[in-house]
Write a structure and sequence with these properties.
This protein is of the alpha/beta class. It has a single domain, classed as Rossmann fold. Helix content is about 45%, strand content about 20%. It has 11 helices and 8 strands. The radius of gyration is 17 Å and the shape is globular. The two termini are about 30 Å apart.
């Protein structure tokens, strides 16, 4: 379905029984809510599952220009308001992970448990430069030029060599991402910082990351700084850890939510 909020139409999908607790899933850069198919299939019994395409992705509008995380947070909050969701668990991966942490820092009254996956939740001078380089490639050469280099960065070499079916699913989502959406969200990723305020978070937080994902060390540090948080590292998984290790990923989420 499409929900109009914050000046755009946001594509979203709802699974699970009415009246069940809400859990929201927020996608990474260059994917769509289809990245959460395995999680929705597993959780849509005990939970009401909301998946949505972030601005510029999937079926959501892709306005031109550089986006900010303030805009992405406002999109998510507007979606919750439009659907009359007063309180929810919120999970996100990579860009979605930063969205999750940013939302609970800005609007703590709207959330229960937070799941931050495969995201350091903070840009650096080096990462900002890398994002600007990728933006330039997208502008000059289009999305296709970024597909294979990104797959090689997101997944361990042994996974890329085996080329399991979920890699083609990722490639397809990447190729379907509008250039405007990639550029807009890459600009947001080049300039954000929710890690610095981590100690202010009072909610239960799960940091969930692939063992072979680059943000793992930064996420361990976030866990160490946030008293009472939980940290789970998925053996052998890369950046899109929920698709690399869906069963282990789902178990970590189920256990975390059940602890409440």
């Amino acid at each position: 379905m499409k929900i109009n909020t914050n000046g755009i139409n946001i594509n979203c999908q709802i699974d699970g029984p009415e009246g069940a607790p809400w859990i929201v899933f927020s996608n990474s850069l260059a994917t769509s809510c289809a990245m959460w198919d395995e999680q929705a299939a597993t959780l849509n019994g005990p939970y009401r599952v909301l998946r949505y395409d972030q601005r510029g992705h999937g079926g959501t509008d892709a306005p031109a220009g550089r986006y900010t995380f303030d805009t992405l947070l406002t999109d998510a909050l507007g979606l919750l308001n439009a659907l009359h969701i007063d309180k929810a668990h919120f999970a996100g991966l990579s860009m979605g992970g930063a969205t999750a942490l940013g939302l609970v820092e800005r609007h703590p009254e709207r959330f229960n448990r937070i799941i931050v996956c495969d995201s350091p939740c903070q840009s650096t001078l080096q990462s900002a430069q890398q994002w600007e380089e990728r933006i330039a490639i997208a502008q000059k050469q289009g999305i296709e030029a970024l597909v294979e280099p990104t797959v090689s960065r997101w997944f361990p070499p042994e996974t890329v060599a085996k080329n399991p079916p979920h890699l083609d699913k990722v490639r397809a989502m990447f190729r379907s991402t509008p250039v405007n959406g990639f550029i807009g969200c890459a600009a947001a990723l080049a300039d954000h910082d929710y890690a610095s305020a981590i100690t202010k978070v009072k909610h239960p937080v799960l940091f969930l990351v692939g063992e072979k994902d680059a943000p793992a060390p930064a996420m361990r540090k976030l866990h160490e700084k946030l008293a009472g948080s939980r940290y789970v590292e998925l053996p052998g998984a890369g950046h899109i850890s929920n698709m690399d290790r869906p069963a282990e990923f789902n178990r970590a989420i189920i256990d975390f939510l059940a602890a409440g």
